[in-house]
Structure formats: C-alpha cells, structure tokens
Amino acid sequence: MNKEKILKDAAEYLERADIKEHLEEDLAALISIPSIASKREGIYTFGSQCANAIDKAIELGSVYGFKTENHDYYCASIIYGSKPEEVGIATHLDVVPAGNGWSYEPYRLTIEGDKYIGRGALDDKGPFICGLYAMRFLKESEKKLPFSVRLIAGSDEEVGSSDLEYFSKVRTPPLFSFTPDAEFPVCIGEKGILQVNIMLGKLPDIIAELGGGSVSNAVPDYAYAVIWDEKTDVSTTDEYRGIKLERLDAKRIKIHASGKGAHAAKPEQGINAIGVLANYLNEKVLPDSDKKPFVFLSQACGEYFGRTLGIS
User: Fold this and answer.
1) What is the pLDDT of residue 236?
2) Cβ atoms 50, 75 nearer than 8 A
3) Looking at the predicted structure, is the pLDDT value of residue 183 above 80?
4) Reduced to 3 states, what is the DSSP secondary structure of residue 264?
5) Domain spanning 207-302, CATH class
6) CATH entry, 3-178, from 3.40.50.2020, 3.20.20.240, 3.40.50.150, 3.40.630.10
7) Where are the chain's structural domains?
C-alpha cells in the first residue's frame, strides 16, 4: 500500500458532503447522551446513560456493516476484518460531569467553523467517531489489511478503567493497540487516581447538612452546608468570595460555595468548591473546638500539590 495515496484518499473521503453529514450526525447523537459512569442498574454496569452510549455505538457499527460485540456493558467492540491478529483502537464513551459555566449547551453538538464543541467532543466521543470513520473508509474503499481492526469503546475510563480490565478477561487483547485519547503522537504515561474514604467524625451540632462534588475524577464546582442559625440577616452579611447565603426558614441558612470545575487530570484549571466552603466555615461559622476536620478539608482541597498536607 502507498501510504501517501491512502492518506490522500482518506482525506477526500472525509471531505465528501454525505460522509461529513453522517459523521456530524453520529457525533451529535453520542454527545447528546450524558454518559457519566454511575452505579450499576441491573445489567447496566455503569448505569443506564453509559449503557445508552454503548447501545448507540453498537448501532452505528451495525449500520455501517461491522461485526459488533457488547461486553456486558463494560465496553463494546466494533470489528473490521476476519484475521485472528488484531490492532486495537482503545476509546471510551463515558464523560466527566459537565459542571457549570459553559458558554454552549454541553450535551448538544455545536459547530463553529472547523470546531466541534460539546461534552465528549475531544474526550473521547470525537476520537471514537474518528476511529469508526477510519474503519468505514477502509471497508468502503475495500482496503485489505493483514490484520483485523478492533475499535473498543469503554464506559469507565474516567474513573478507573475497569472496562478494559474486564475486556481482557473475556477477550484476548489485540496484538497491538493505541489510543487516540492523548496528545500526539503517543501517550507514554498518565497520572494515577486513588479513591479513598476518609472519616472525619460526626458533623458539628451547628451543621445540619453538608455536601459537595459528584464524582472522584473532577474538581467540584459546587459545595454547600446547611447550618442552624436563627439570628443572621443574610441580606446584610459581608461578601465572601465564592459564597452565597440563603435563608431556608426561620432556623436554617444554606451556604452555597461556588468554585470552578475541571478534569482531575488538570486541577490547575479549577477551584475546589469544597475548599472554598471549608475556608468560610472555619472563618465565619465554627467555634475553635469544631474546626479540626474542616482545617483538613481546607488544606486537602485548597491546593493540588499536597504542600499543605506535607506530601508534595
């Protein structure tokens, strides 16, 4: 095969009006699914929305004439060719929660010039579509390869990659695989992720309710606390960055803390709302005897190098 000719033919194929229209329709369909990995729902390993994305990927693969496999909703495979040796393209369809502050509707594909905008357009539904359409080009132009191509679409990359671990138990991994979910030309290493449960004791009596964040792989953009307070006039309290007070009733005030959401891989782009809330509670609400757990939260969520915890 002539590499330059194949690349030229592929570029011309993708520029065809009908192909471009199909590609954008398929990408839009996937982006419209808020496929955030969650708890198992019956046979749906990572929840119904991730299952919807898997079903859509299988539907697309079938429509374009490929063999497809559903690996118990951990992941799906779309296969071109019948040779036993395989090259794998590892992608995923789960996404990080959209969070707040979008200028566009996150679960709707927006096209501006040569840019595709939407949750998952870059990470990693767009790359999945790239793999699928590369396989369409090979199939429809009848390119013969000395191996099969297996496009893997996972559902748990953002949290733990148990999808690929499961795949390796039910199928023989391809002879060689690569992932388009990285910077060019190849991903040679990634940050790890550690999920732990830390018990900080019971809530202080003044706090009725406390919450913040929704997943372990994103910087939370919102946190809150409900406190018992009959005296404070929320309309006259001093402003505090990232904090808004709301009186719920005669006895309770809700403290809203706003941060800036970001992928956990890039914490420098975010502001942790739990840290913002902890700072406020320590400075404005809690007596010294109740501050210790919230000092820890302030230190743990206030910066991302571990300096305040002595582990940098």
Assistant:
1) 83
2) no
3) no
4) coil
5) alpha beta
6) 3.40.630.10
7) 3-178, 207-302
Residue at 161: amino acid letter: S
Among 164, 137, 167, residue whose Cα is nearest residue 149: 137
CA 38/CA 56 separation, integer angstroms: 18
Strands (E) located in the chain = 67-71, 75-80, 86-92, 110-112, 115-117, 148-154, 176-178, 207-212, 218-219, 222-228, 243-247, 252-258, 262-263
Average pLDDT of the residues in 48-73: 98
Question: How many C-alpha atoms does 284 have within 13 Å on its Cβ side?
Answer: 20
Alpha-carbon distance 48 to 36, whole Å? 9
Angle among Cα 17, 103, 159 to the nearest 5 degrees reads 85
Average pLDDT (273-300) is 95
CA distance 177 to 90: 7
207-302 has the same fold as 3-178: no
